[in-house]
Amino acid sequence: MIRLASAKRTSSPLSALTRPLFRLITVLALIATSLSPLGTNADAAVGRNAKPIRKQVQTEKPIVIFDTDMGPDIDDAMALGMVHSYADAGVWKIGAVVLSRRSPTGSGVKFIDAVNTYYGRPNIPIGNYKGGHPEDDAGQYDWMVTTSPIASQYPSDIRPETVRHGHKVMRQVLERANDGQVIIVTTGFTNNLSGLLKSPGGKDLIRRKVKRLVLAGGEYSGFNGQVDVEYNLNHWTVHQPSVAHSFNVLRNWPGTIVQLEYSLGYKVLLRSPAVRRLPENHILRQAYFFKSGDVYFWHVADGNGSFHMRSWDMLAVLAAAGNAGKNFPAITKRSNRGTIVPVASSRGGVKTIFNQDIKGKHLRTGLAAADYGLTQDGPGNEITQQLERQITRVLTRPIKIGRNRTR
Known about the structure:
Blueprint: H1 13-34, E1 63-68, H2 75-88, E2 93-99, H3 107-118, E3 126-128, H4 142-147, E4 164-165, H5 166-176, E5 182-186, H6 191-198, H7 202-209, E6 210-216, H8 231-234, H9 240-252, E7 257-260, H10 262-267, E8 269-270, H11 272-275, H12 283-289, H13 292-295, E9 300-301, E10 307-310, H14 312-320, E11 332-344, E12 350-356, E13 362-365, H15 369-372, H16 382-395
């Protein structure tokens, strides 16, 4: 989900954009080699005229686990839609969706199930964190799954009381997968990951089965005050159990971590006109515009009573899909390979330090502030616009609703 709050440069047109773009494209080649990129794609068209992402040709399709703190923000839901879009394109199979937010009302898991069902995959395993997290903002979605006049259009037959603990669902997917087949995308808290690590033999299981973990969390630039209190690693209040989970994951994860930092997702936007290209009764369009002006104050007002959405979680899915097409834009820093080191922050939480090392097993993805003139409210340039176009293209790709499939 999102970290609270509230980044491109203009010097000479060619020098200001060509140098960073060249750097980014060069680094993308490194990532493509080291992470075995996943599929192919070609077009930037969107909406009903969008051309399908070309089917991936490979003998063993990757399995993705989407680990989300669905609610209160809407970027989680949009990211889940992208996970399904890539599955439609043959980039991966969806192994499970797990919720890292405690959800006593069940609305979070019911909304996840409603989205999965809308995309024609009603039987995807769903897990839910069962620990002592202090809040349940997933209640945001009660309207969509219970009281909405059109709720009957978005069926969900899940019984929240029967949903298993998130890390147990993740473990079951890993146990059934081939070695190196699983990609985990975590766009919320780290409690499910930490539980998986702590489970018997969990570290060895992860080492064998997980190709990479894509983690939306952390910040290095000092942007928006997020270095010491970045939301996904700490929770709003620097919640100590959440901090402990983050320390455990960042210190002990045995494989590749691709880290997306706060500042990039803050600057790259999903624009409201793009969402309006979805059919009017599309579940994600309905969720996006539901109480948008009141609820999503941390996004960017569009002047029409709605907002342009900051794209933290959507970028994580984009990065997880790897080089899913020749037009996939690079979203990686110059200092991209090394080791993520968690340290105590000045506010009692966890922050990350990145030690550059060509032999490191971690990658830091984003854009350096110097590469796109990062300011809190500055205009975008061609680099972030490329990312925005790619998110829009994937999200608005036409789907055939209600296909009889389980993945």
